[in-house]
Design goal:
Blueprint lengths: L9 E4 L3 E8 L14 E7 L1 H11 L4 E4 L1 E2 L3 H12 L8 E2 L7 E7 L5 E7 L8 H9 L6 E6 L4 H12 L4 E6 L11 H8 L4 E4 L13 H12 L2 E5 L5 E5 L2 E6 L12 H14 L4 H15 L17 E2 L4 E2 L2
Parallel strand pairs: 1-4, 1-9, 2-7, 5-6, 9-10, 10-11, 11-12
Antiparallel strand pairs: 2-3, 7-8, 12-13, 13-14, 15-16
Helix pairs in contact: 1-7, 3-4, 7-8
Length: 323
Amino acid sequence: MKYQKKGGNVFGLGTAALDFRIQTPDMGKNYEEKLLAQEIQIMGGGACANCLVQVSRLGGKAFWLGKLGEDWIAQKILEELEEEGVDCSNIIQDSLVISPFNLAVYTKETLKRVGGFLLPNSLNYLTGKDLLDFSESIDENDWVIIEIGELSLDTVLEFCNLLKSKNIHMACDIDLDPVKQCGGDIKSVKHLLNYFDIIIPNRNALTSIYPGFSAGEVSEMMSSEIESTVIITAGKDGVYYSEAGRRFGHQQASDIEVVDSVGAGDAFHGGLMYGLAQGWNIEAAINLGLKCGRTNCRSFGARAGMLRMEPLQVNFQGHKISK
């Protein structure tokens, strides 16, 4: 599939949250008692919001769609996104819900991640009217990335039906296992994915649907079954991508010193979506996404190291991105 649209906006329906980064002493892998929080940092987070921040830093027009409470967490989320140039004018706030936050625990000495939890989930309270209002702000020159993870599968399906009627290009970020964590079954998940032009899962999120296969094998199998472009991120192994069962190839991730890998996938998605919205071919968009992902790994926090356009050398006619 060729994507000819140029200069469109990038909309994202999915999570925006505050990340509470809690640092504790390293008590060893078998320790199961209380842990004292010795230091707490509060940072912007959420897979969809992070992606849109990266789009905005590259010079694209990014719009977040979602629901928050009317609490201080919501105020902080919106302040940070608006400072990054992400348009939040479509956001719905409801005093009866609590805005989402993520608790992530790290060892203080090595910054090794111990665990994390996202709670609560204000996106569960989106209504059909909310989704209709969101869809009316999007036109056919725009791209929309929708998150499968914190959003319920029924909500995703309802929104996809609204967008499909307008012939809007859609990408899907599969952030969590849609079977084990989101309560879907394999048949209904595959049916849902048929709505998307591009599917961008991480390999671990597909374990329930494609167990025992490599990322490259899954990209071919999935794109053949669903007849969409599938781009699978595989951490240090880079990215595998296929279109309708035809193998495009594999772009290897560069070796870098990783400070924090949280947010690397979101930065990749942001670079990819920026490229697609500019009308780039899929290889060039993936190349930019990989550069964004590896750059973000060099800093602690989901957004701190995200790439800005100024230091990036881009040949817009050939869409070649420097290393």
